[in-house]
Amino acid sequence: MPTDPAARHSPGTSGTPTVRPSPTAASRDRVLADRAAELEGLIQPAPLPGAHKVVVLALDGVYPFELGIPHRVLGSADGRYEVLSASVDGGPVRTDADLTVTPGHGPEVLAGADTVIIPPYAISRAMITPDPGALAALSRVRPGTRLVSICTGAFLLAAAGLLDGRRATTHWALAGVFQELFPRVEVDAGVLFVDHGDVLTSAGAASGVDVCLHLVRQDHGSEVANQVARRCVVPPYRDGGQAQYIERPLPPASGAGTGPTRDWALQRLELPLSLDELAAHAAMSTRTFARRFQEETGLSPGRWLTQQRLRRARHLLESSDLPVERVAHEVGFATATSLRRHLAAEAGVAPSAYRRTFRASGPGPSAGAGSGAGTGTGDVREASVAGGG
Question: Is the pTM higher than 0.90?
Answer without folding.
Answer: no
